[in-house]
Hints:
With 356 residues, the protein is of the alpha/beta class.
Amino acid sequence: YYFLDEIEYEPDWEIWLDTIGDLRPDAKIVAASSAFCGKKRRNKEANESIKTIEISALSFFEYCRLTGVDVPDISDIASDLKFSHMTKHRMIELINSIAPVQNHFSRYLQRGGFPETSLAADQFSSQIIREKVVNKSIKEDILSISSVRNPTELEKIFLYLCGVTSEIVSIEAIAKNVESVSRPTVESYIEYIEDAGLIYMSDPIEIPPYKIQKSSPKIYIADAAIRSAILMGEPIGLVGDEARRLVEGAVYRAVRGSRRAGSIAGYLRGDHRGRSIDIAARHGDEYTLIDVRFDEEGTGPGDGIIYELAPAAGEAVVVTKNAGDFGLKKSPDGRMIAFIPAYAFLYLTGATRKLF
């Protein structure tokens, strides 16, 4: 076994790995890095010589465990938990059993994505994120392993991405809003930021009868606390559109981090009326559809495209805001759609290691 840390800083690191593999075919190499290795890593994965395991920000369940929250015992829940296949009685029982963790949800969204900030006093967490997460990634890791000509432009692009998290963002829009930056430069810098683990890209996926339209990806900041620390310096209140952005990002990370082998996670743009599915996962011919309705009418009328597509989906879920916004509703074709409060969805998916 070989255990290597921050290998990307070593010139020709990929050649050294190949050499070890050639000389010791039976060797197992574990290389840890705070920054992914971009195209080189993806090219290596094509021949299965390298497997990348991404360690994302803490799940809500992990945050509760780490910070000493009295974690409810839900050991009787199977790992193949299906929200929309529950009975009404079972859902009420489940939501009631985890109700105490709701009090910790707001702080998790604003501070809890990283172990150090989860355990630090609130007045220090933004400083920790700026100095040890963002500055290290933007001003050290990316500059050390990538060909960035203008670090200021890189920082401006990242700042812009923080502002539009959970939105569909085009390269043209970024180039227009960040002065004097060309489209090729924007594309390269976004790739560097993604490889540094600071953002996630959610691409449109096809769900019959809707084809993939010509569309840009959604961009999510890797953790809500990064957005708060960079844009405001202090936590942003969990109200209105800001709350929806943070929750949608957390839900996307939960789905992305729990995919089965061969699954893809993205979003759906349905039709000319602008209807869409915020988060969709596809595994073969099986789909999971998730809409985030983090507002006071989370269980409002069923005019969303999720009601139309629910009959063909393996599971359809609407993530809501208030603790009382849960239950099951039938689509026009009789398929059940589950309504789950955001704190409960994120806690249960983390606790059961639910796969999408």
